[in-house]
Write a structure and sequence with these properties.
This protein has 24 helices and 2 strands. Strands 1-2 form a two-stranded antiparallel sheet. It folds into 2 domains: 211 residues, Tetratricopeptide repeat domain (Serine Threonine Protein Phosphatase 5, Tetratricopeptide repeat), CATH 1.25.40; 113 residues, Serine Threonine Protein Phosphatase 5, Tetratricopeptide repeat. The two termini are 35 Å apart. The chain is mostly helical.
């Protein structure tokens, strides 16, 4: 694995001169910045909130319904609103506007980049890769397609290509989007402390814009949480809510950190707010685990039942949540043979280290531990320091009868983050001794 040169480049640049970007959630464990906005959209957002921006653009479009620029800006604003609210219906609205732009102005690079960003949000990574390459062909001097291109390559497990793409992106425009990608690359390569450094710079260049700042605060919190620094993580999640009140990703992660500290009533209240706002799979999984930890098995089962409904809603809006749903079912022992089939399908479309890990875990929970071991080894090939990956490997080794080796993996998981899972951390502690 080659080292990514962009890390040195970016840390040598003054944060005060960098430009911002707009953000999205694009991976199971977190989010990376998508530089899919235009400077015109950013300028308008500095003057008003996204809802107000949308209303203004809708009014303009009523007067000039066939103006490609307004169509594209409104599509970008809808995508931005999806990032803020996690309401998947905005994705379909945005897609319709980008397609209309392309009908009126074939080969429009910004609309094509917009569609690439939507495909990433919908977890359609091969489509995103194709669209990003097309946008790059249409605008070879633009940095915008590089972010979507690299993100898609990451999720397809093509890490060398992804990191090279990020290198080039940082050379063209070192900004918030570049810093965020540096942070994620470092996290994947097992360098969480230096990932925090890069994400701190991303926060600095968010320029006080609510959603980018809230997103960066959450990402910093997640990095600290992954290191077992729960109190520090909690502070960042609270800062995210200060930057953007009601930000659902911050509510969810603050709930997780409160639960890790044993404050289950507070955790439940926060988690319920996130689920009531937008019932994304990860939010429902958090609430289910909190209910289970509180001893409310009826409440936990209600959340389990909700997952099927949520998947239908997401599918109706073009979002592929197979990997998240497979992990949830495997973790909770729900229809394990079906969960294994779903994990295989999900991993085929998303052959990243996390696709490998979910499939390994599904195989192990179905008693197919010899096959699981190969995928577990693949999931750790970058040196990523993730307690869940270590725990799954420990369970596989234990299943294979290698108890001493298993204990080492359980200990590694707990050393990395003793609060990595509400439902599995206690198992790791028991098997590590």
């Amino acid at each position: 694995m080659k080292k990514i040169a962009l890390i040195t480049i970016l840390l040598g640049v003054s944060a005060g001169v960098l430009l911002g970007g707009i953000l999205r959630e694009a991976r199971p464990s977190g989010a990376i910045a998508a530089d899919a906005s235009t400077s015109a959209l950013e300028a308008r957002q500095r003057a008003r909130d996204t809802v107000g921006l949308i209303r203004g653009l809708q009014s303009t479009l009523s007067a000039t319904p066939d103006d490609p620029r307004t169509l594209t800006l409104l599509g970008l604003a809808y995508h931005q609103r999806y990032r803020e609210s996690a309401d998947p219906t905005y994705l379909g609205r945005a897609a319709g506007l980008f397609r209309r732009t392309l009908e009126l102005s074939p080969g429009d690079p910004e609309a094509t980049s917009g569609l690439a960003g939507l495909a990433l949000s919908q977890h359609r990574f091969r489509t995103a890769l194709s669209l990003a390459r097309e946008a790059q062909r249409l605008a070879p001097d633009s940095v915008r397609p590089y972010g979507a291109l690299g993100d898609a390559l990451i999720e397809l497990g093509r890490y060398d290509e992804a990191f090279s793409t990020f290198d080039r992106m940082s050379e063209l425009r070192p900004n918030l989007a570049s810093y965020a990608r540096v942070a994620y690359a470092r996290e994947l390569l097992g360098r969480p402390r230096t990932a925090i450094e890069a994400m701190s710079l991303a926060l600095e260049v968010s320029a006080g814009r609510p959603e980018p700042a809230a997103w960066a605060f959450v990402e910093l919190g997640k990095l600290h949480f992954g290191l077992g620094e729960t109190a520090k993580a909690r502070g960042y999640f609270r800062s995210a809510l200060g930057a953007l009140p009601g930000y659902v990703y911050a509510l969810d992660w603050l709930a997780r950190s409160e639960a890790a500290a044993g404050r289950f009533d507070r955790a439940r209240s926060l988690s319920r707010r996130a689920v009531d706002a937008v019932p994304l799979p990860q939010f429902v999984a958090t609430l289910a685990d909190i209910e289970r930890a509180r001893g409310n098995l009826v409440g936990a089962r209600e959340q389990y039942a909700l997952m099927a409904t949520i998947q239908e809603l997401l599918r109706a809006n073009g979002v592929n949540s197979d990997l998240e749903l497979a992990l949830f079912r495997v973790d909770h022992g729900i229809r394990l043979p079906e969960a294994l089939a779903l994990a295989r399908t999900a991993r085929a479309g998303r052959p990243s280290i996390y696709g490998d890990d979910v499939l390994a875990w599904a195989l192990a929970r179905n008693g197919r531990c010899g096959e699981a071991l190969a995928y577990s080894k693949r999931s750790l090939r970058l040196g990523t320091k993730d307690a869940s990956l270590y725990f799954h490997r420990g369970m596989i080794e234990r299943c294979l009868g290698r108890d001493a080796v298993a204990r080492e993996w359980f200990a590694r998981a707990l050393e990395t983050n003793p609060d990595f899972s509400l439902i599995w951390a206690e198992t790791a502690r028991r098997y590590a001794s």
